[in-house]
Amino acid sequence: MMRGIMTPHPDAGPGAGRTAGHPSTPIPDRGTTVADLEIVAAVARNGVIGARGGLPWRLPDDLRRFRALTTGHAVLMGRRTFESLPGALPDRQNIVISRDPGFRAPGAETAGDLAAARERVSRPDPAYCIGGAEIYRIALPFARRLHLTEIDRAFDGDVRFPDRDPDDWRETAREPHVDAVSGVRYDFVTYERTGRILTRPGPGA
Ligand SMILES: NC(=O)c1ccc[n+]([C@@H]2O[C@H](COP(=O)([O-])OP(=O)(O)OC[C@H]3O[C@@H](n4cnc5c(N)ncnc54)[C@H](OP(=O)(O)O)[C@@H]3O)[C@@H](O)[C@H]2O)c1
Protein backbone atom coordinates (compact mmCIF):
# COMPACT_ATOMS: atom_id res chain seq x y z
CA MET A 1 0.00 0.00 0.00
CA MET A 2 1.20 3.52 -0.79
CA ARG A 3 2.71 5.59 1.94
CA GLY A 4 1.90 9.15 1.05
CA ILE A 5 3.51 12.46 1.81
CA MET A 6 2.09 14.33 4.77
CA THR A 7 0.82 17.71 3.79
CA PRO A 8 -1.29 20.32 5.49
CA HIS A 9 -4.98 20.37 4.72
CA PRO A 10 -6.60 22.26 1.82
CA ASP A 11 -5.46 25.76 1.04
CA ALA A 12 -2.02 25.31 2.52
CA GLY A 13 -0.40 27.56 0.01
CA PRO A 14 -0.20 31.25 -0.58
CA GLY A 15 -2.55 32.99 1.80
CA ALA A 16 -3.18 29.96 3.99
CA GLY A 17 -3.17 30.73 7.66
CA ARG A 18 -4.48 34.25 7.32
CA THR A 19 -7.40 35.30 9.42
CA ALA A 20 -10.75 34.76 7.73
CA GLY A 21 -11.59 37.87 5.76
CA HIS A 22 -14.83 39.70 5.28
CA PRO A 23 -16.91 39.20 2.16
CA SER A 24 -16.63 41.85 -0.50
CA THR A 25 -20.39 41.79 -1.05
CA PRO A 26 -23.08 42.37 1.55
CA ILE A 27 -24.22 39.25 3.35
CA PRO A 28 -27.90 38.49 2.89
CA ASP A 29 -29.79 38.24 6.14
CA ARG A 30 -30.49 34.56 6.61
CA GLY A 31 -33.14 35.11 9.26
CA THR A 32 -33.99 31.88 11.00
CA THR A 33 -33.35 29.48 8.11
CA VAL A 34 -30.64 26.85 8.40
CA ALA A 35 -27.88 26.77 5.81
CA ASP A 36 -27.96 24.26 2.96
CA LEU A 37 -25.17 21.81 3.48
CA GLU A 38 -22.80 20.30 0.93
CA ILE A 39 -19.82 18.08 1.62
CA VAL A 40 -16.36 18.45 0.10
CA ALA A 41 -13.87 15.63 0.56
CA ALA A 42 -10.92 13.97 -1.11
CA VAL A 43 -11.21 10.20 -0.72
CA ALA A 44 -8.71 7.49 -1.59
CA ARG A 45 -9.79 4.27 -3.31
CA ASN A 46 -9.79 2.52 0.08
CA GLY A 47 -11.86 5.25 1.73
CA VAL A 48 -8.94 6.91 3.52
CA ILE A 49 -9.19 10.69 3.95
CA GLY A 50 -6.37 11.37 6.40
CA ALA A 51 -3.32 10.07 8.19
CA ARG A 52 -1.79 11.20 11.47
CA GLY A 53 -3.70 14.47 11.48
CA GLY A 54 -2.94 15.44 7.89
CA LEU A 55 -3.56 14.48 4.29
CA PRO A 56 -1.63 11.48 2.94
CA TRP A 57 -1.23 12.96 -0.57
CA ARG A 58 -0.29 16.16 -2.29
CA LEU A 59 -2.64 17.20 -5.12
CA PRO A 60 -2.27 20.94 -5.79
CA ASP A 61 -5.10 21.06 -8.33
CA ASP A 62 -7.42 19.52 -5.77
CA LEU A 63 -6.53 22.26 -3.28
CA ARG A 64 -7.21 24.88 -5.98
CA ARG A 65 -10.58 23.33 -6.70
CA PHE A 66 -11.36 23.25 -2.97
CA ARG A 67 -10.50 26.93 -2.67
CA ALA A 68 -12.57 27.89 -5.73
CA LEU A 69 -15.58 25.95 -4.50
CA THR A 70 -15.59 27.21 -0.93
CA THR A 71 -14.41 30.83 -1.20
CA GLY A 72 -17.14 33.26 -0.15
CA HIS A 73 -19.05 30.57 1.74
CA ALA A 74 -19.04 29.16 5.25
CA VAL A 75 -16.85 26.13 5.94
CA LEU A 76 -17.87 23.85 8.81
CA MET A 77 -15.20 21.59 10.25
CA GLY A 78 -14.27 19.49 13.24
CA ARG A 79 -11.79 20.74 15.81
CA ARG A 80 -9.10 18.27 14.67
CA THR A 81 -9.38 19.38 11.05
CA PHE A 82 -9.07 23.02 12.12
CA GLU A 83 -5.93 22.12 14.04
CA SER A 84 -4.49 20.45 10.92
CA LEU A 85 -4.66 23.77 9.08
CA PRO A 86 -2.07 26.52 9.20
CA GLY A 87 -4.91 28.77 10.36
CA ALA A 88 -8.42 29.86 9.44
CA LEU A 89 -9.14 29.59 5.71
CA PRO A 90 -9.12 33.05 4.15
CA ASP A 91 -12.19 34.62 2.55
CA ARG A 92 -14.55 32.13 4.14
CA GLN A 93 -16.59 32.03 7.36
CA ASN A 94 -14.76 29.38 9.38
CA ILE A 95 -16.93 27.53 11.92
CA VAL A 96 -15.22 24.94 14.09
CA ILE A 97 -17.27 22.27 15.87
CA SER A 98 -16.08 21.16 19.31
CA ARG A 99 -17.68 19.73 22.42
CA ASP A 100 -15.34 21.89 24.50
CA PRO A 101 -17.22 25.10 25.28
CA GLY A 102 -13.90 26.79 26.11
CA PHE A 103 -12.33 26.02 22.73
CA ARG A 104 -11.24 29.11 20.82
CA ALA A 105 -10.06 29.06 17.22
CA PRO A 106 -8.24 32.19 16.03
CA GLY A 107 -9.97 33.69 13.00
CA ALA A 108 -12.86 31.26 13.33
CA GLU A 109 -16.17 30.93 15.14
CA THR A 110 -16.93 27.91 17.27
CA ALA A 111 -20.08 25.83 17.68
CA GLY A 112 -20.99 23.06 20.09
CA ASP A 113 -22.61 20.83 17.48
CA LEU A 114 -23.57 20.63 13.83
CA ALA A 115 -26.97 22.26 14.35
CA ALA A 116 -25.40 25.25 16.12
CA ALA A 117 -22.78 25.50 13.37
CA ARG A 118 -25.47 25.66 10.68
CA GLU A 119 -27.34 28.30 12.61
CA ARG A 120 -24.21 30.47 12.76
CA VAL A 121 -23.80 30.54 8.97
CA SER A 122 -24.04 34.08 7.61
CA ARG A 123 -22.53 33.54 4.15
CA PRO A 124 -24.63 32.61 1.12
CA ASP A 125 -25.71 29.00 0.61
CA PRO A 126 -24.40 26.45 0.44
CA ALA A 127 -22.34 25.97 3.56
CA TYR A 128 -19.59 23.43 3.01
CA CYS A 129 -18.79 20.68 5.45
CA ILE A 130 -15.05 20.14 4.99
CA GLY A 131 -14.43 17.28 7.43
CA GLY A 132 -12.90 15.43 9.01
CA ALA A 133 -14.27 11.93 9.36
CA GLU A 134 -16.31 12.56 12.52
CA ILE A 135 -17.98 15.63 11.09
CA TYR A 136 -18.60 14.02 7.68
CA ARG A 137 -20.36 11.19 9.51
CA ILE A 138 -22.77 13.48 11.35
CA ALA A 139 -23.25 15.83 8.36
CA LEU A 140 -23.91 13.18 5.70
CA PRO A 141 -27.66 12.75 6.42
CA PHE A 142 -28.17 16.52 6.01
CA ALA A 143 -26.10 17.04 2.86
CA ARG A 144 -27.76 17.79 -0.46
CA ARG A 145 -24.65 17.35 -2.58
CA LEU A 146 -21.23 15.72 -2.32
CA HIS A 147 -18.16 17.12 -4.05
CA LEU A 148 -15.74 14.23 -3.90
CA THR A 149 -12.26 13.99 -5.26
CA GLU A 150 -12.07 10.26 -5.89
CA ILE A 151 -8.41 9.31 -5.87
CA ASP A 152 -7.63 6.18 -7.86
CA ARG A 153 -5.05 4.90 -5.37
CA ALA A 154 -5.16 3.39 -1.90
CA PHE A 155 -3.31 5.19 0.89
CA ASP A 156 -2.34 4.29 4.43
CA GLY A 157 -4.40 6.30 6.87
CA ASP A 158 -6.33 6.36 10.10
CA VAL A 159 -9.55 8.15 9.14
CA ARG A 160 -12.06 7.22 6.45
CA PHE A 161 -15.01 8.78 4.70
CA PRO A 162 -18.25 7.33 6.14
CA ASP A 163 -20.07 4.56 4.28
CA ARG A 164 -23.06 5.73 2.31
CA ASP A 165 -25.92 3.99 0.57
CA PRO A 166 -25.27 4.29 -3.18
CA ASP A 167 -29.05 4.41 -3.76
CA ASP A 168 -29.18 7.73 -1.90
CA TRP A 169 -26.86 9.46 -4.38
CA ARG A 170 -26.88 10.10 -8.11
CA GLU A 171 -23.68 11.03 -9.92
CA THR A 172 -24.20 14.24 -11.91
CA ALA A 173 -20.68 15.19 -12.98
CA ARG A 174 -17.26 13.55 -13.30
CA GLU A 175 -14.07 15.24 -14.42
CA PRO A 176 -10.90 13.11 -14.72
CA HIS A 177 -7.46 14.47 -13.79
CA VAL A 178 -3.89 13.22 -13.48
CA ASP A 179 -1.43 14.80 -11.07
CA ALA A 180 1.52 15.96 -13.15
CA VAL A 181 4.13 15.15 -10.47
CA SER A 182 2.97 11.87 -8.89
CA GLY A 183 0.96 10.51 -11.81
CA VAL A 184 -1.94 9.86 -9.40
CA ARG A 185 -5.27 9.75 -11.21
CA TYR A 186 -8.31 11.29 -9.60
CA ASP A 187 -11.79 12.45 -10.59
CA PHE A 188 -13.78 15.44 -9.38
CA VAL A 189 -17.21 13.88 -8.89
CA THR A 190 -20.49 15.51 -7.93
CA TYR A 191 -23.30 13.50 -6.35
CA GLU A 192 -26.82 14.79 -5.70
CA ARG A 193 -29.05 13.28 -3.09
CA THR A 194 -31.84 11.27 -4.68
CA GLY A 195 -34.36 11.26 -1.89
CA ARG A 196 -35.41 12.85 1.31
CA ILE A 197 -33.00 15.01 3.22
CA LEU A 198 -32.91 15.42 6.97
CA THR A 199 -33.23 19.03 7.94
CA ARG A 200 -32.67 18.98 11.67
CA PRO A 201 -29.98 17.01 13.50
CA GLY A 202 -31.04 14.63 16.20
CA PRO A 203 -29.45 14.39 19.63
CA GLY A 204 -25.67 14.03 19.60
CA ALA A 205 -25.24 15.38 16.08
N1 LIG B 1 -9.35 14.20 2.64
C1 LIG B 1 -10.13 15.21 3.03
O1 LIG B 1 -10.90 15.78 2.24
C2 LIG B 1 -10.08 15.68 4.47
C3 LIG B 1 -10.87 16.75 4.87
C4 LIG B 1 -10.82 17.16 6.21
C5 LIG B 1 -9.99 16.49 7.11
N2 LIG B 1 -9.25 15.46 6.67
C6 LIG B 1 -8.39 14.71 7.61
O2 LIG B 1 -9.24 14.12 8.60
C7 LIG B 1 -8.51 14.01 9.83
C8 LIG B 1 -9.31 14.65 10.94
O3 LIG B 1 -10.57 14.00 11.05
P1 LIG B 1 -11.13 13.45 12.46
O4 LIG B 1 -12.29 12.60 12.19
O5 LIG B 1 -9.98 12.89 13.23
O6 LIG B 1 -11.51 14.80 13.22
P2 LIG B 1 -12.58 15.97 12.88
O7 LIG B 1 -13.86 15.37 12.39
O8 LIG B 1 -11.90 17.01 12.07
O9 LIG B 1 -12.75 16.60 14.33
C9 LIG B 1 -13.18 15.79 15.40
C10 LIG B 1 -13.56 16.70 16.55
O10 LIG B 1 -14.77 17.40 16.23
C11 LIG B 1 -15.54 17.56 17.41
N3 LIG B 1 -16.78 16.79 17.27
C12 LIG B 1 -16.99 15.62 16.62
N4 LIG B 1 -18.28 15.24 16.71
C13 LIG B 1 -18.90 16.19 17.43
C14 LIG B 1 -20.24 16.39 17.86
N5 LIG B 1 -21.22 15.49 17.57
N6 LIG B 1 -20.54 17.49 18.58
C15 LIG B 1 -19.58 18.41 18.88
N7 LIG B 1 -18.28 18.29 18.49
C16 LIG B 1 -17.96 17.19 17.78
C17 LIG B 1 -14.69 17.01 18.56
O11 LIG B 1 -13.89 18.09 18.99
P3 LIG B 1 -13.43 18.21 20.54
O12 LIG B 1 -12.53 17.04 20.77
O13 LIG B 1 -12.73 19.55 20.61
O14 LIG B 1 -14.69 18.17 21.37
C18 LIG B 1 -13.83 15.98 17.84
O15 LIG B 1 -12.64 15.67 18.52
C19 LIG B 1 -7.15 14.66 9.57
O16 LIG B 1 -6.24 13.65 9.19
C20 LIG B 1 -7.43 15.58 8.39
O17 LIG B 1 -6.27 15.86 7.63
C21 LIG B 1 -9.27 15.04 5.38
Describe the structure.
With 205 residues, the protein is of the alpha/beta class. 15% of the residues lie in helices and 28% in strands. The chain has 4 helices and 10 strands, in the order ββαβαββαβαββββ. It has helices at 60-70, 79-84, 114-120, 133-139; strands at 37-44, 48-50, 74-78, 93-97, 109-111, 127-129, 143-151, 159-160, 169-178, 185-193. The strands form 2 sheets. An 8-stranded mixed sheet has the order 5-4-3-6-1-7-10-9. It is globular. The model is unreliable at 1-10 and 13-30 (pLDDT under 50). The protein binds NADP nicotinamide-adenine-dinucleotide phosphate. NADP nicotinamide-adenine-dinucleotide phosphate is lined by residues 9, 41-42, 49-50, 53-55, 77-81, 84, 97-100, 103, 112-113, 130-135, 138, 159, 204-205.
Topology:
Layout: E1 37-44, E2 48-50, H1 60-70, E3 74-78, H2 79-84, E4 93-97, E5 109-111, H3 114-120, E6 127-129, H4 133-139, E7 143-151, E8 159-160, E9 169-178, E10 185-193
The structure holds NADP nicotinamide-adenine-dinucleotide phosphate (NAP).
NADP nicotinamide-adenine-dinucleotide phosphate binds next to strand 1, strand 2, strand 3, helix 2 and helix 4.
Strand order of the largest sheet: 5-4-3-6-1-7-10-9
* Bound ions, cofactors and other small molecules, one mention each: NADP nicotinamide-adenine-dinucleotide phosphate
What's the helix count? 4
> What's the number of extended β-strand segments?
10
Radius of gyration: 16 Å
> Which spans of ≥5 residues are poorly predicted at pLDDT below 50?
1-10, 13-30
SSE class:
alpha/beta
Distance between the termini: 34 Å
Give the SSE string: EEHEHEEHEHEEEE
Shape: globular
